[in-house]
């Protein structure tokens, strides 16, 4: 049976996303919109792959740290009011933070 890892799919899909950005010329402002989202996509996908490759407790800790980093990402997007709606960034911040805390409590 073919085993497909979602993190690899995201990393592979970031290639066409980068190409689209180059064609559309959106990389003029590198820390906004599509370039920033592509960097985030690659970073969080890479963190997921590393978490799967290391010892389970270390992987769980890495996932918790990534969730807290994503919560900070959500705060940034809420603050600048771009990319996603403010209510979605608020919800995602609460969810990421709660899940990160639950993972830390579970592995302690």
TrEMBL record:
Source organism: Devosia sediminis
Protein's recorded name: Uncharacterized protein
Domain of life: Bacteria
Record-annotated membrane-spanning stretches: 6-27, 58-76, 88-107
Protein keywords: Membrane, Transmembrane, Transmembrane helix
């Amino acid at each position: 049976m073919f085993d497909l890892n979602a993190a690899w799919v995201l990393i592979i899909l970031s290639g066409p996303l980068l190409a689209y950005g180059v064609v559309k010329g959106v990389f003029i402002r590198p820390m906004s919109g599509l370039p920033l989202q592509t960097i985030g996509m690659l970073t969080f996908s890479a963190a997921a792959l590393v978490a799967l490759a290391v010892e389970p407790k270390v992987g769980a800790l890495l996932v918790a740290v990534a969730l807290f980093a994503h919560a900070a990402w959500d705060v940034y997007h809420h603050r600048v009011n771009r990319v996603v709606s403010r209510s979605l960034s608020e919800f995602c911040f609460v969810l990421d933070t709660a899940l990160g805390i639950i993972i830390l409590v579970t592995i302690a």
